[in-house]
Amino acid sequence: xxxxxxxxxxxxxxxRSICYYCDFAHRVFDRKLADRWLGRxxxxxxxxxxxxxxxxxxGGGTPTALSSVQSDTLLNMLDPFSSNxxxxxxxxxxxxxxxxxxxxxxxHHINRISMGIQSSDDEILRSLNRKHTFQDVKxxxxxxxxxxxxxISGDLMYSxxxxxxxxxxxxxxxxxxxxxxxxxxxxxxxxxxxxxxKKGVKALDEDTEAEMYxxxxxxxxAAGYIHYEVSNYAKKGRESKHNLSxxxxxxxxxxxxxxxxxxxxxxxxxxxxxxxxxKDLDDKDEDLVLSKDDREFExxxxxxxxxxxxxxxxxxxxxxxxxxxxxxxxxRNPAIRIENGRLICKDLEILNHVLLDFML
Length: 360
Ligand code: SF4
What we know:
Elements: E1 7-12, E2 14-15, E3 27-28, H1 31-48, E4 55-60, H2 68-78, E5 87-92, H3 99-107, E6 112-118, H4 122-127, H5 134-146, E7 152-158, H6 165-177, E8 182-187, H7 195-199, H8 206-222, E9 226-229, E10 232-234, H9 241-247, E11 253-255, E12 260-263, E13 266-270, H10 274-279, E14 284-289, H11 292-303, E15 310-311, H12 312-319, H13 323-326, H14 328-331, E16 336-339, E17 342-345, H15 351-356
Helix pairs in contact: 1-2, 2-3, 6-8
C-alpha cells in the first residue's frame, strides 16, 4: 500500500542574475535551456506525482525568471494535482514579476506569494547583486494586492556586510509598512561556492548577528507578528502550511533539479547537475534510508523548531517509544517544557544548544 503524499515542492533552477551570497542549484536564465528543462519536468511529474496535494510550493532559483508562456506551461502540468490544494505558493523576485505573470498565477489558483525582498536599503541590495530597488518591491506588492493576493510573505536578510543596527531598523520599519502576512528571516552565511565565498567576504561577528536577531524579534512581535518558528514570523493563521509540513516531519515530494524528497524512511535529493538530470531522472545526489533512531531524532529536531513543538503521544505511537524516557536528559533541559501533551522549546534562539541534550 502506498501512502498519500500531501505536499509537493518544485524547484525552478533559473535566475535572471546570481546574488553574490547564493549557491543554490540554478543557472542564469536561458530560454532554450528552460524549454528543455520543462520537457524533463513534465516527464518527472507524470512519473512521480500521483496525489491531490494539500500544499504546493514552487521555489527556486527564481520561478519568475521563466517567461509568461513557460510559467503557464509549468502550471498547466500541475493543474491535475492541485484541485484540492489549500496553500499554493510561488516564490517571486520583484525584478521579473509583472501583471501578465500575476494573471497566470491567479488563473492557476496560486494563493500565496513569497517575495525575495532581503533589505530596503538600495545600496545593500546592489552590494548583494540584487537587481531591484525597494521601490520595485512596493510597486509589485501593490500590484499583487490589486490582483487580490491576500497572503504575501517577504524574505528579510540580516547580518549583511555594511548593515548596522540603524540600517536594520530602517529596513524593519519599511518591511512593517508593507503589512505582509508572513516574514522569513535569513542571516547571511558565506557559502564556499558563492561569489562572496570566492571573494573571501566575511560574515558579521556572532554577537552582532545575535543582537540583530533579537532586535528583529522584539520589533516584529511588538508589531503583532507571531514568532512561530526559529526564523519565521506570521500574523495569526498565516503560518506557512507547506513549511509546517517539513517541521512536523511529514512526507513530501520534490520535483526537478536539486529538489529533496522525504517518503517514509527514505530521503533523497535529485541531482543538482543539469546534464545528469537530462540524462537520468533517477540520478540522485543523496539517497538514504534512515534508521529508526535517525528518524526519531530528525522528527524531534524539526518539531522543536516551532512554538507548537512535538505531539508526544503521536511520536510514541509512530515509533513505539516512550519519548520522555528515551530522551530523559533532553527533556530535563530548563528550556524544555511540556504543555498539553506537547514537548516545546521555550527559547528558539538557543535550540541548537538544547538539542545537544537530546543526542543519544
Ligand atoms: S538568492 Fe534567489 S534570486 Fe538570488 S541567486 Fe539565489 S536563488 Fe537566485
